[in-house]
Design brief:
With 255 residues, the chain is of the alpha/beta class. The chain is 42% helix and 15% strand.
Length: 255
Amino acid sequence: MNHNRKPFVAGNWKMNKTTVEARELTSAMNVPLRDVTGVEKILCPPFTSLPVIAPMLSGTDLGLGAQNMHWEEKGAFTGELAPNMVKEFCSYVIIGHSERRSYFGETDEHVNRKLRAAIKFDLTPIVCVGETLDQYESGRTSEVVSRQIKLGFAEVDSASAPRIVVAYEPVWAIGTGKASSGENANGVVKQVIRSALTDLFDEKIAQSIRVLYGGSVTGANAAEFFSQPEIDGALVGGASLKPDEFVAITKAAEK
């Protein structure tokens, strides 16, 4: 971690937990997470739980994020949520998660529209990028990830860029138990992601943007990633549903 960039840990609950269960999970983590200082800590439950959890986090240093949103402000988009609906409860939003890309056909253009809408509504976007197993094995990591950054960040002005958070999630490591090594992930962040951001903006802005690692992060391996100079935290999936694990990961970021 680079001490000029504040560590950032977000828990993506994905499609898990009813409102009752979400309240229980938040209660179990609320106090121990508040004891962790110097780390930006975010919970991203399903949409149905946002209005339930928002009051529980009020007055604490824990942030609330949505897992997705539409780029349009209103209209005939059945089943979607507009940026201002997300903004009612949240300060953060995850954009372009690999599951959205692979299961729901989201493209880099969709990611770009959502990113610009998030900035417009003063939400902190967490933009996910990463290569599939096939792309990784055929040596296309650099090509794929730099394209996702360049197309995803198109037309974003340099004044807004530093508030964006990037999550590097190699798709082959998500939910598989096969985490990338800290060294490998650090290399991709440095040589591909920060390099693409430098091309789009400049070196100073590229160095100010926080980049997280995501993909089978646990309390046991978090320190390996956080000890890398280019990795500023984690976007945590499965382990964010286990209070002790998520707190342990957040504490690893504090160190």
